[in-house]
Write a structure and sequence with these properties.
The chain is mainly α. It is 78% helix and 0% strand. It binds magnesium ion. The site of magnesium ion (MG) has 5 residues, from helix 1 and helix 2.
Length: 164
């Protein structure tokens, strides 16, 4: 059985992952409205990935015969200054999520909940990847700068992203 404190923390993390999905979906809409279909597609796939993160924890709670209690989601931001501002926000958001996962892991260690520690290891590795990817896109956007044609080329490149 899951302890109450771990169960509550896992339910909270389902919400955090779903909020990420919601935020990235909102960002996808912004990109589509800004005539950047590649960025829009990329963010939409990213949103779908966050949804699978939430479902991993959802399934895990049920597997441990715990109780899933979905929380209310906040309204995500819907306006962004530029693709660069948007990706900087993605990176900041992912760093925040990394902190949440680390706190959850610490809690699992404190509670001696070894299965939860093992489950969270996947998320720790995933967060490394998320921060790295956001950083790489910021790097590309820095190189592009104010160059419109280069931004369109980057848009095409991002459109090529398949579901991970
Ligand atoms: Mg996630």
């Amino acid at each position: 059985m899951l302890s109450q404190i771990i169960q509550d923390a896992l339910n909270e993390q389902i919400k955090n992952e779903l909020f990420s999905a919601y935020l990235y979906l909102s960002m996808s809409a912004y990109c589509a409205e800004a005539s950047l279909p590649g960025f829009a597609q990329w963010m939409r796939l990213q949103s779908g990935e966050e949804n699978t993160h939430a479902m991993k924890i959802f399934s895990y709670i049920l597997e441990r015969t715990g109780h899933v209690e979905l929380q209310a989601l906040e309204k995500p931001q819907s306006k962004f200054a530029s693709p660069m501002a948007l990706f900087k926000q993605v990176l900041e958001h992912e760093k925040k999520v990394t902190g949440m996962i680390n706190n959850l892991y610490e809690l699992a260690v404190k509670e001696k909940d070894y299965p939860t520690e093992i489950m969270l290891e996947w998320f720790i590795t995933e967060q490394l990847e998320e921060e790295k990817t956001a950083g790489e896109i910021i790097q590309l956007l820095t190189m592009v700068g104010e160059n419109g044609p280069a931004l369109l080329m980057l848009d095409r490149q991002l459109a090529a992203r398949g579901a991970k």
